[in-house]
Amino acid sequence: ESIKTVLTSPENRILIKRMLIKCADISNPCRPIEQCIEWAGRISEEYFAQTDEEKRQGLPVVMPVFDRNTCSIPKSQISFIDYFITDMFDAWDVFADLPNLMEHLDNNFKYWKGLDERKLRSLRPPPE
């Protein structure tokens, strides 16, 4: 009933649509772990390439944390989740009830945290 009330206002419907688009855009940490790892790698590689190109051209480096020689992908994912994802998806979950997404988010955060605690900087632990 409260959702129907929220949806009666055109301004609220626009806000909800914008929120949904934003959540979809940055939702990688809410995917199943294998997809999350794959896309974290792709995104990191894109940022590494940008940093490499900025250095090559002598431009200011926009994202110095994404220097491929020093970057910790687990730390970058933890920071991204802490800074952008958790509060946004907590709010979205209250509105839309998304237990699967929230479970993936929790599992993925624990995965990256586990790598970071082991002082690993890569997408995956080394083969044992």
UniProtKB/TrEMBL annotation:
Biological processes annotated in GO: signal transduction
GO molecular function: 3',5'-cyclic-nucleotide phosphodiesterase activity; metal ion binding
Domain PDEase: 1-119
Hydrolase recorded as keyword: yes
Lineage top rank: taxon: Eukaryota
InterPro entries: PDEase_catalytic_dom, PDEase_catalytic_dom_sf
Keywords: Hydrolase, Metal-binding
Signal peptide: none
Pfam family for this entry, one: PDEase_I
Protein name: PDE8A phosphodiesterase
Organism field: Ardeotis kori
Gene that specifies this protein: Pde8a_0
